[in-house]
Design brief:
alpha+beta; 4 domains; Dna Topoisomerase Vi A Subunit, Chain: A, domain 2; five-stranded mixed β-sheet; DNA primase DNAg catalytic core, N-terminal domain; 26 helices; DNA Primase, Chain A
Length: 615
Amino acid sequence: MNSPVQKIKESLGIEEVVSSYMKLEPAGSNLKAKCPFHNEKTPSFFVSPLRGSFYCFGCGASGDIFTFVEEFEGLDFKGALKLLADKAGIQLEAYSKGREETESEKEKLYRAMEEATLYFKNNLKETKEVLEYLKSRGLTDKSVEDFRIGFAMNDWRSLYGHLKNKGFTDSEIEKAGLIKNPLPASPEREGEFPSPLGREGRGYDRFRGRIMFPIADTSGRVIAFSGRLFVDDGKSAKYLNSPDTPIFKKSSILYGLDKAKQSIRKNDFSIVVEGQFDLILSHQAGFKNTVATSGTSLTGSDRSLDDTTNNLGMISHLSENIVFVFDGDKAGLAASERATPIGLALFKDMNVKAASLPLGVDPADLISRNGVDAWKEVIRNSKHIIEFLVDRYITDIQSKDSLKIKLNIEKKIIPYLELIQNPIKKSHFISMISNKSGVREDDIRDILNKSNKPDLIKESDTVEKSSNMFRKDYILRKLLGIILWQKTVKVPTPEGVGIPTASVGKQNTDVDAILKEIAEILNIKEDQVLKETEKNKEDLIFEAEVFYGGDANLEKDVAELLNNLREEFLKEELFKKMQELRVVEEKKDTDKTSEVLKQINEINNKIQDIKNKKI
């Protein structure tokens, strides 16, 4: 029987999956586009429907539909499996039953978050005053259901007790960000916890008396919460968000992105608002391409340190056009939380627009009070961020003092103008600033040339991790998963007793030989190969079992993976040697230059030999 992976591949073509995220153009029997995994001006990303794979000649990224979704969506394998299975209409129950005993830590956290979501939803159904409040804010019953909104009772341990009854440990509930551990007892804290709960030994709910908005990853799995205080007690924050956890990083997701991504691609622009109510009302108004920063933090690098796609990187792959909408009472662009995302978007050469609302009005208020047409008008009247800034800090200022205008240009506009990469765009805006301000273009250029790099972005926000490094690690992960999986496979003996074996049906995989070859490729000892797999062993086994547990030719797949691993390792060695060559050439060390060139030639020959075997 075919595995779910094979069934999904039979149902979904590579061109169907990739084209749902980005525009593809015909290129002979293949399709091409600008690579979504690194910045480029000329398309070098190719999709082969015949082979069911993609390859980028610029950064070396390659793989099948699962690799693409993992990379693009920033998901782990299970997340990609769930997303593609849902898209293909394939059930995965057989691969989820009976795995609770061996599931990984992350899988348990996902289950805990889902259980918490259901618990909060059930609470909401029993709390009429909260439901009435949501309706008063303009939310329909359908939106409440679609966005899985819930309510956390104002009790110290109601969720904690529920999850404990479901079999979750204190450690798991705390790691999911759902409870806090109590501080040590002290006389000053007497009475803080109502009797008979006591003060020590057990955690207490992080979210209490709050309307709960689940934050989902791009496959729809709940990974965090943002809780809005229902009754203001005068001392608690209005909004409380989940902390970073093993399954949630604030820079890796945006609220509503799982529901907005297809609409962003279809409409070719995204709308960024601040709050959950703003987003939900915008979706109700028909603008499903809206995302919100509430509960998350917008960052601009395409990949984070753990190889997940960051939120602005994800949006920029879906569309280069973005509209930031500012609340009427928070329109000051000097605020750091505003400067950073706009600066990052400009740095990525996106087409950044901005729109503002009347004083004291947010998007949710506008839509619920004035209707859909009023919201459409706000989006329609959005302006490029430079024009928006010029109107705010030059055209609209009361004083026409030339010195003040020049200072506004230098402090409020130039930091953003400097980030625009396209010279034609930059020249256009210099002319526009000059026309509206009366300041000569040459003076504006002088200010621009003398300006230091603006502190709108951090260098760490613009550094992209090497795609080749991810490529090598991805291949190695697959091989390690196969080894671990094969070590656990059992077949019945004549006496009916299962014994570990590397043989599954017609497959006969020598795991010791695989270990030996990996060690030889990576130039490490064999006992070091599996050293780092203990923490995610079950994830690796699950992935290998689902990928290769059907009718796949495991021996052939292993041979191909080993060849690919060797090729990627050689490419890294080649990169290092090219760097070394630059150094010795600068030092004019003729002998060393000849030696390095010889080594480069040898590596190139080895790479070519591997490629020739693939033909």
